[in-house]
Amino acid sequence: MSDTPPLSITTRKLNLWYAKFQALINVDVDIKHGIITSLIGPSGCGKTTLLRCFNRVNERYGYVTTTGEIKLLGKNIYDPDVSLIELRKSVGMVFQRPNPLPISVYENVVFGMKIHHERSQLTRAALDEAVEKALTETGLWKDLKDRLDHRATALQLEQQQKLCIARLLPLKPEIILMDEPCSALDVEGTRAIEELMFALKGRYTIVIVTHNMAQARRASDECIFMLLGELIEHSRTEDLFLKPRNPKTAEYIEGRYG
Amino acid sequence: MNRDPKTMFTETPLVRSKFRQEAAAKWIFAGMAAAMIVPLLLILGYLVERAWPSLSLGFILDVPIRGMKEGGIWPAFVGTIYLVFISLAVSAPIGILAAVYLNEYAKDNWLNRIINLAVINLAGVPSIVHALFGLGAFVYAAKFGYSIISASLTLAIMTLPVIVASTREALASVPRSFREACWNVGATRWQTIQAIVLPNSISGILTGVILQVSRAAGETAPIMFTGAVFFKAVQKGDLFPYQLHEQCMALSMHLYTISTQVPGVKESIPFATAVVLLGLVLVVNAAAITLRVWLRNRKKW
Ligand SMILES: Nc1ncnc2c1ncn2[C@@H]1O[C@H](COP(=O)(O)OP(=O)(O)O)[C@@H](O)[C@H]1O
Ligand SMILES: [Mg+2]
């Protein structure tokens, strides 16, 4: 590679404590823009915690302390002029269990827009257009265009998860964080979500947590291995799996930790 | 092969003993269920039977005559509606909004937990204690005197903790993942509450409030100390017979009066009064259940 892509997420000496328990230890990470980066490691190693740092949602728990620096697109997200609301608007999150809101498909997709705009700024036509665009991008339009008024919580799990991705798109996020987005899905659903990730790649920085190593291998360009709150290795996915630099990484990918 | 195929699937003594236990358990549980329901039905049947000679729409709409020995119960009926309505108009908004604050905004720290504990304990305070508080606070200290206002506020204080507790429970039953979904697209707490939390807990909240109607309607002590009277002359069928600063009659109090204080009341009248009170409560509860079912069917997750 001649010109390195710009960095999307960088952290320096990132430490995080849940009360007295240190869940992240001196994490330095550089995640590149426009590619898919996967985050692997045994359960409890802090993958979810790290992901949740990037939109500062950990702070919802009162007992969390964070030190160190986190920059998104070069901007320190702990700067005093950073609005959490705007931050979370540009950094979308997809969860382990699909969590569409208990309202219609249509309302789910426009939920974010309605939250971030005055009522008067949104025309029906603009909303309709946004819904069609987001659902088309996520491959749901064909299936759901006649069921836009159906309850999102009644959809199949795979559609629910795609919808959770679709509802981020109208907000034009820079970064999409996914926390084991396929763990509630079957093989078909998993493949569909992976294809969707490929389709979205380039425009968005995607960070995906997975404990499925095959998925990390298939679906990501770069891979980060974490262990007990520390970042052990970060390299191109092929390199990490074929010639890991750190012996701990090698042990993990050979299946020696659970 | 270590088991004889001929007897492999036949009953063993152990299986027979399990069946006996199963049957015994079933009969004990059924017996307890009957022990609960039968007395209720007997009470209801007995009440209605004894009340029968007096039961009619006229009984509700008429005023008592001849020193409350005959006639109807209109002043008490309207009085109860006044008290219940005003007390809930005060306690429901305060209770619901306070519960929203405690559940959605306040940090989960020791103070919040102590408040929660206090609320739960307050919900169990005997009504006579509320009555004394109401007497001191509203009748004397606030100088409302013996009045509908004092009695309603006392009932409001009595129902408030239960409304807070039931509302909190309804709010807490909305899955956390919905809230997280909202926060992660940058919704504020108020936007989250408005768009997701309240619509999904409204059925539980309303049920909790409506169930307090029966409590407010049934309690005697709090209103006896603060604003209910034995008798008040009222026009038959008058919908607005009372002023807020006046005392009023109430069904529970009236029932107490005519059953214990007035000699020579026509025998069926106390029973009919009880049936009306019971009927009022049943109607309100049925309404609560209907509302709940209707709202339930609209939300599915
Ligand atoms: N909300 C929390 N409160 C306290 N400890 C937590 C919380 N969330 C996670 N932890 C702890 O932090 C560590 C890392 O958790 P997590 O980031 O969820 O791991 P992973 O996603 O890699 O399985 C675990 O030991 C876990 O017990
Ligand atoms: Mg996790």
Overall description:
- The complex is a heterodimer of chains A (258) and B (301).
- Chain A has 258 residues and is of the alpha/beta class.
- Chain A has a domain at 7-97 and 174-253: Rossmann fold (3-Layer(aba) Sandwich).
- Chain A is built from 10 helices and 10 strands.
- Chain A has helices at 47-53, 84-90, 105-116, 124-137, 141-144, 157-166, 187-200, 213-219, 237-242, 247-253, and strands at residues 7-18, 21-32, 36-40, 64-72, 75-76, 91-94, 175-179, 205-209, 222-227, 230-236.
- Chain A has a 6-stranded mixed sheet with strand order 6-7-8-3-9-10, sandwiched between helices.
- In chain A, helix 3 crosses helix 4 (124-137) and helix 6 (157-166) packs parallel to helix 7 (187-200).
- The longest helix of chain A has 14 residues, at 124-137.
- Chain A is globular.
- The two termini of chain A are 35 Å apart.
- The model of chain A has no long low-confidence stretch (mean pLDDT 88).
- By secondary structure, chain B is mainly α.
- Chain B folds into 2 domains: 17-51; 57-297, MetI-like (MetI-like fold, Orthogonal Bundle), CATH 1.10.3720.
- Helices cover 71% and strands 1% of the residues of chain B.
- Chain B contains 11 helices and 2 strands; from the N terminus they run ααββααααααααα.
- Chain B has a two-stranded antiparallel ribbon with strand order 1-2.
- In chain B, a hairpin with a 4-residue loop joins strand 1 (64-65) and strand 2.
- The longest helix of chain B has 39 residues, at 13-51.
- Chain B is flat and about 90 Å long.
- Chain B starts with 12 loop residues before the first helix and ends with a helix.
- The model of chain B has no long low-confidence stretch (mean pLDDT 87).
- Chains A and B meet through helix 2 and helix 3 of A and helix 7 and helix 8 of B.
- Residues 47-48, 179 of chain A line the site of magnesium ion.
